[in-house]
């Protein structure tokens, strides 16, 4: 009887009715099962978080792939090295669809002040 209530199917969940009646030790009435549809496998919030994670993972892998291909010399005194580093970082931002520092600051200001009609009222 304990086993009957634990039966699970991949697409449907089976619920057992506890209809086993033992009137006499030799006679047992079998359990009847009623199939019900199982709950959705993933909630909308879970799917949204999964998509965000996959997007960040894709951007990270793109940046790492570019950094593996490029040879970067880090020397703040050498103008050619600084210029080459700037090109590599710009390439990463373009291909991975990332914000620059100024774009990130602009986005933060816009999102935090979008409900404020005028700066003087804040």
Any descriptors?
122 residues, mainly alpha, 2 domains, two-stranded antiparallel sheet, 8% strand, elongated, disordered N terminus, MGP1
Description:
By secondary structure, this protein is mainly alpha-helical. The protein folds into 2 domains: 4-37, no CATH class; 44-121, no CATH class. The chain is 46% helix and 8% strand. The protein has 3 helices and 2 strands, in the order E-E-H-H-H. It has helices spanning 44-69, 79-96, 101-112, and strands spanning 12-16, 33-37. The chain has a two-stranded antiparallel sheet with strand order 1-2. Helix 1 runs antiparallel to helix 2 (79-96). The longest helix is centred in the middle third of the chain and has 26 residues, at 44-69. The radius of gyration is 31 Å and the shape is elongated. The chain starts with 11 loop residues before the first strand and ends in a 10-residue tail after the last helix. Residues 1-21 have low confidence and may be disordered.
